Amino acid sequence: MSAARPSEGERADPVRCVRASGTFVGHARRRLNKVELASIPMTEPHEFASVLQFEQPQPAPVRVSPSERYAILTALLRELRAAMPEPGFIGVRLYGSDFDVQLSAEMLAADVLVTHAPLQLLPTLLQAGRRDLVVFHHDLRADGLEQGRNEFAAWLVAPTPAGLDGFSDFVGRSGFLQGLRGLAVERAGAEALEAAAARPDLVRAPFGAGAGA
Description:
The protein has 213 residues and is an alpha/beta fold. It has helices at 8-11, 45-52, 66-83, 122-127, 161-173, 175-178, 190-198; strands at 17-23, 89-93, 112-115, 133-138, 151-157, 181-188. It is globular, with a radius of gyration of 18 Å.
């Protein structure tokens, strides 16, 4: 599926954005990955009670390990750069508590920022006149204590014509994105972007009536 290309009038809007999103239901081919589960050292009753407070029923299963989650993001970064060599900014959502997993060189690049809420950084970048801003937003679960729906969204904000063409090519060629269930490529404006930034827990939050008009 290719990213929808806006009209010439829409291309002139600096806060116009495109979101490609879907739900991860597993890889097309089965593969073996190290589980990387670790037990929390607990001996006292109050320690068990404290951890119990984090447990909530989750409809989405754990489908990746912490290392595999970073491997998916690294592969997406490589695919993005192949299709879009000079993005103005790349934000990647840090999700989970797997801080002992080594980040790849791609995720440590000078123009990549790994943070818990990358969408909230976009207003400042837009005010500075930056274009072709890309954000990978997700809630891929890698641990039973993590909450999420295994959803993934790739955003392109304030696209230039060349950036939009590159992003469209990236979405169309990415095996991971094309494998997402219910993959949808949607256009939206500033209001939808603000709503998404306000609710980082909702990766595929609907844009709402008129948000993408």
